[in-house]
């Protein structure tokens, strides 16, 4: 089943997919990962119909995680936020350059990069700058 809608988000503080996976393992163990964001998606039902969050590392979209659910999170400041509950399976995708943006953006399935073939999922990720250069040349 193809998703109806995805999210795209900058992954700040991680060098690449392996870094994000290690951080999530340390923080969440073997359970689902959670990413808290300020805004609640208005198109929730479309996202929960097979959607993923596509992670952008240093200007290059390199990985995705399926969105399992959305949970309300009340911060220490009393403000309601959205907790994206994510599948721990971090799927590497074909590198696509993306300009910086704030928050998250909706991503239509037609604009989402393809998953890397299963045989390439275990490869060490290229540095984002090299992945971006190859993607711009149409070589990755």
Structure overview:
- Helices cover 18% and strands 35% of the residues.
- It has three helices and seven strands.
- The chain has helices spanning 17-28, 44-47, 128-136, and strands spanning 6-10, 33-37, 52-57, 60-74, 80-86, 91-97, 104-107.
- Strands 1, 2, 3, 4, 5, 6 and 7 form a seven-stranded mixed sheet that branches.
- The longest helix has 12 residues, at 17-28.
- The protein starts with 5 loop residues before the first strand and ends with a helix.
Task: Pick out its properties.
single chain, 140 residues, alpha+beta, 7-stranded mixed β-sheet, 7 strands
For the sheet with most strands, the description reads: 7 strands, mixed
As a whole number of angstroms, the C-alpha radius of gyration is 15 Å
Number of E-state strands: 7
Low-confidence runs: none
* Terminal Cα span: 26 Å
| Total DSSP helices | 3
Mean pLDDT: 88
Query: In sequence order, what are the helices and strands, one letter per element?
Result: EHEHEEEEEH
Strand content: 35-45%
Q: How many structural domains? A: 1
Class by helix and strand content? alpha+beta
Global morphology = globular
Considering DSSP H and I runs of 4 or more, what fraction of the residues is helical? 10-25%
Give the helix/strand layout.
Blueprint: E1 6-10, H1 17-28, E2 33-37, H2 44-47, E3 52-57, E4 60-74, E5 80-86, E6 91-97, E7 104-107, H3 128-136
Please summarize what this structure is.
This protein is α+β, with helices and mostly antiparallel strands. The protein has three helices and seven strands.
